[in-house]
Amino acid sequence: MASTTDAVVEASVKALEFREAAWKAAMRGRRCPDVTGLSDPALLSILHYGESDLPPAASEAAQAEARHRGLLASVVDRWMPWAVMGGLVGSGLAIAVELLVG
Asked: How confident is the model at residue 69 (pLDDT cuts 50, 70, 90)?
C-alpha cells in the first residue's frame, strides 16, 4: 500500500521526467512528449512550474490536457463565489436601508 508521500514523490518525479523530455524535444525540434499518460497530480505539478521552466509547446499541451480533464477552474468557477458574496452584501445593505428609512 503506497502512502500519500509516495504518491506525491512519484508525481514530482514524473513531472521532472516530463520537463526534461520536453526540453530535449524542444532542443531537437521535435514535438513535446505526450501528457495524456501523466497522472493528475503529476500534471498539476507540471502546471506549477514557472512559464520559463517549460518550453511553450509543452506548457500549452499541459494546460490543454488539464482543461480537458477538468483540473483547471473556469472563469465562472473563479468568479461565482465573489458574485454570490456581492449579491448577499447588496441584499443586506438593501434590507438595512429599508429598516432604517422605513
From this structure: confident
